[in-house]
TrEMBL record:
Entry similarity comment: Belongs to the KduI family.
Binding positions for Zn(2+) per the UniProt entry: 198, 200, 205, 247
Broadest EC class assigned to this enzyme: isomerase
Pathway terms, separated by semicolons: Glycan metabolism; pectin degradation; 2-dehydro-3-deoxy-D-gluconate from pectin: step 4/5
Domain of life: Bacteria
Record-linked HAMAP family: KduI
High-level lineage: Bacteria, Pseudomonadati, Bacteroidota, Flavobacteriia, Flavobacteriales
Entry GO MF terms: 4-deoxy-L-threo-5-hexosulose-uronate ketol-isomerase activity; zinc ion binding
Record field: transmembrane: none
Free-text function comment from the UniProt entry: Catalyzes the isomerization of 5-dehydro-4-deoxy-D-glucuronate to 3-deoxy-D-glycero-2,5-hexodiulosonate.
InterPro entries: KduI, KduI/IolB_isomerase, KduI_N, RmlC-like_jellyroll, RmlC_Cupin_sf
Protein name: 4-deoxy-L-threo-5-hexosulose-uronate ketol-isomerase
Cofactor stoichiometry and binding remark: Binds 1 zinc ion per subunit.
Annotated organism of origin: Chryseobacterium koreense CCUG 49689
Cofactor: Zn(2+)
Amino acid sequence: MKTNYSFRYAANPNDVKSYDTEKLRSEFLIETLFTQDEVNLVYSMYDRLIVGGAMPVNEKVALETIPYLKSENFLDRREIGIVNVGGKGEVSVDGEIFELDKKEALYVGKGVKEVIFSSKDASNPALFYLNSAPAHEVFPTKKIGKENAIVIELGDQNNANKRILNKLIVNELVQTNQLQMGLTELLPGNIWNTMPAHTHSRRMEAYFYFDLQEGQTISHFMGETQQTRHIFMQNNQAVLSPEWSIHSGAGTSNYSFIWGMAGENLDYGDMDICAPNELK
């Protein structure tokens, strides 16, 4: 197996105003998360969140430390959230096995030495999407199955944003230091997510888009509310969202996405909303 890793600096919003398409994509878009029998990781300076993916096919793959961490084990000073977006898989956490079906999550706390990913069927491999943030307290590993999620219905058909929000790794369900994760599913015929748009001055966010039909695309909107930009994205890609940026999108078909947050506040409702007709 192989671990691939890269690094992203934080960007000043005044600088982002001058970015062309290529620069905007190189700073914020994460194009490749899943490669066979490998782990891909992006270390971001936005609250030091790591976004990654693991795709075990013919062999098990391990969560290995990377040079940026300067630690013997990946989770010596970190916590991690894992959501399976592929076939059935297993995660071994210091020898304890957790089975994850598609759209099920696992929280793993600080201090764990060994995390190993595997698929139940190589012809339909598991795809483990990963978010990791710095941690100072030790909290227990916990699986959040489909039956455990907090489910909220949002939006309406008239505004093309009828969707189901599944809170997975949130403080109502799981003790974490700062990591929060959930999964939103847009119903057929609906394309808009997270509208009205908002920013989080107390935390950053990452979006991961999946279950997008072949040949379709998603336009992810980012930037300050009066200086918005867009990035066209494909299936199984992620995007970093700074605390000063909106994070919203519209697809040419319906899709699902995972939102992950890190920062100083665990309150899901702590957001600064901008009305749709006030965006520029």
